[in-house]
Putative hydrolases of HD superfamily (Lutimaribacter pacificus), 394 residues
Amino acid sequence: MTAPARLNAQMAFLNEACRLKSVTRATTLCDASRPENSAEHSWHLALYALVLGEHAPGDVDIARVIRMLLLHDLVEIDAGDNPIYGQIDHAAVAAREQEAADRIFGLLPSDQAADLRALWDEFEAAESADAQFAKALDRFQPPNQNLASGGVSWLEHNATLDKVETRVGAPIARGAPALWDWIAPRIRTWFAARTPH
Amino acid sequence: MTAPARLNAQMAFLNEACRLKSVTRATTLCDASRPENSAEHSWHLALYALVLGEHAPGDVDIARVIRMLLLHDLVEIDAGDNPIYGQIDHAAVAAREQEAADRIFGLLPSDQAADLRALWDEFEAAESADAQFAKALDRFQPPNQNLASGGVSWLEHNATLDKVETRVGAPIARGAPALWDWIAPRIRTWFAARTPH
Ligand SMILES: [Ca+2]
């Protein structure tokens, strides 16, 4: 592929990526003014990685984590966001996301499509230390926005402390134990204050 | 500073950063559905850097460029966005942005505040190859969204080919000549089609 042909393919991918700004999530902004979209969420997560790198356990390569987080939600352009507290068919979602990854990364020149797809596959597999830290940040940001907004999306989705500990706490504790130690008492305090005595 | 105290400071910074999602820009999304905000713009630029790194001239460190782009607009939380075609008092804007950088980076632990502030200062100075490539991407993304949307924001701001070549073309040509070669004929074709014959 010549340089201009590569650039044509790369720009088709980058223009398609623009659509992630129109995919909305269950979590609101910190001020509860509106639901967050997946593009600004991805920016915020990359900034989390940049700032919180020192709390990653062991050998984590923050530049790779940032690249993963920039890409991690692109499949939602076709497959949508799946709220963490919803009842979902995991196999069906995974199949839709694989198809989405084929189509979207497939817009790129083939060498680059393979590289970025491998990075997304690694994130999804959540086995490497880099992917586990990236996944931990993806779970750590929403409860921070919930605590800031007064718990709007927890209330709306009838979240319970038990569900938060399982679906949010477990992946944070696995990929970034220091971050779970920091936020767990804050989450417990919020839920304790809502429990009728 | 102890580890939990550092984390308190870092989380205050990251929660404050959430406000960048509410700063709107002159450019619309590619589908013209609404104005773009500075947080999703920053994500898109970081993705541009990730994908277009091979077109950077000479010795550019793409991981540093991505970090710069993730941070570059944070000052807009206090200082707002300055549309590129507006008439602005450059000295007053620069002073407001310096104050904003003092306050916002100042939320971080002091060693990290100094590191990230230095990266933002380097971006603003636009002298290093990394900063010039980052600045070039910051100017390259909006005309791509304009071309995709049918030129909505060019029309709204009465942009002329001459202004686009000066304010957008010059910094792209300086930091990323291959990207200017690619987009310049597309921009000229769009403006030529709008000129009455
Ligand atoms: Ca996510």
